[in-house]
Design brief:
The chain has helices spanning about 15-20, 25-35, 55-65, 95-110, 135-145, 160-165, 230-240, 275-280, 290, 300-310; strands at about 5, 35-40, 40-50, 75-80, 150-155, 180-185, 195, 215-220, 240-245, 265-270. The chain is α+β, with helices and mostly antiparallel strands. The chain folds into two domains: about 1-45, no CATH class; about 50-310, no CATH class. β2 (about 35-40) and β3 form a beta hairpin. Helix content is about 30%, strand content about 20%. α5 (about 135-145) packs across α7 (about 230-240) and α6 (about 160-165) packs across α8 (about 275-280). The longest helix is centred in the middle third of the chain and has 16 residues, at about 95-110.
Length: about 325
């Protein structure tokens, strides 16, 4: 197994303020304790990076990641066909934070008030008990329908992450390495997770999703109404075992891997072009794409409407 370490591009500012770095053995012990490295008088997080040579080495990494009920962390994965920064798709138009926020508010308002044709709204089961429960649910639905939001997609399923790290139907990145990100979100340490599967976290339904104080991992459930097959976003969320990372408005354009709140819990696996082919040919089911990217008879209309609406950004 070939392991390397890399530095994130921005310092962990909180630790930089709390730790006074001076020369000597004590300084080295402090850096080692916090898994940090000093470079040009700036403290950086050291990120573990794996470079498996073949499928078996990749599967060995998979087996080393805890997913049992006693794990101190909740494992989440994000596959990318190329090693881009992890950023919400709503930032792609390179607008200011203020314009992005205004666009988000308008979109969520239109979504909530059913001003978007062809998009059915699934009523949230807590919408009458909490002020913003429906706004949260609409945001989740919009992301899985392909609209531009501040969410980034993650999954608790390793192979689903691998699928997105190898999905390249146009063969644009067949000679480029992809990446599978791993976020080991602590269960018991700090405050990083909003788990809407637990009633004690329903309090966040009284906070608007665009007004959070920091970055969080969002774990949410799928609702199964009698007509749930009409809700494409809900089906995709369930099949992909999906979660989200949501930043606060101030740091919406900061890449996730540079966010000092959570980047110390990130690891990455480099998926070389050769390994991509081996995964596609020998590991993933040929029917997985159809299953994970569920389409309905109205889906083409939905995707077209997405392209029109997001010009507002």
């Amino acid at each position: 197994m070939n392991y390397t370490t890399i530095l994130s591009n921005k310092p962990l500012s909180l630790l930089n303020q709390r730790v006074s770095i001076k020369s000597g053995i004590l300084a080295n012990l402090v850096l080692k304790h916090f898994n940090l490295k000093l470079k040009n008088n700036v403290i950086y997080n050291i990120m573990k990076t794996y470079k498996p040579k073949n499928l078996q080495e990749l599967l060995d990494i998979k087996s080393s990641i805890r997913i049992d009920g006693y794990s101190p962390y909740l494992s989440n994965f994000r596959g990318q066909i190329y090693d881009w920064n992890i950023k919400p798709n709503i930032t792609r138009n390179k607008l200011s934070n203020e314009k992005i926020l205004n666009s988000e508010k308008k979109f969520l308002n239109d979504f909530k008030n059913k001003l978007i044709p062809e998009i059915p709204i699934l009523k949230h089961f807590q919408n009458e008990n909490y002020k913003y429960a429906q706004d949260w649910h609409n945001l989740f639905q919009a992301q899985h329908l392909g609209f531009y939001t501040r969410l980034t997609d993650w999954t608790q399923d390793f192979d689903t992450g691998l699928f997105f790290a190898t999905l390249d139907n146009k063969k644009e990145y067949k000679d480029k390495s992809g990446v599978l990100w791993i976020f080991k979100c602590p269960y018991y340490e700090g405050d990083y997770l909003i788990n809407f599967n637990q009633q004690e976290n329903f309090k966040y339904f009284d906070i608007h999703p665009l007004e959070l104080d920091k970055t969080y991992l969002i774990k949410h459930y799928s609702q199964f109404s009698s007509d749930f097959m009409d809700y494409v976003g809900e089906i995709r969320s369930f099949r992909q075992n999906g979660n989200f990372i949501i930043p606060n408005s101030k740091y919406i354009q900061t890449p996730i891997e540079e966010d000092s709140t959570i980047n110390k819990f990130l690891e990455k696996i480099i998926i070389t072009p050769t390994l991509k082919r081996e995964i596609s040919e020998n590991h993933l089911s040929k029917s997985l794409e159809e299953y994970l990217l569920f389409n309905s008879k109205n889906n083409n209309k939905q995707l077209k409407m997405k392209e029109i609406l997001n010009i507002r950004n």
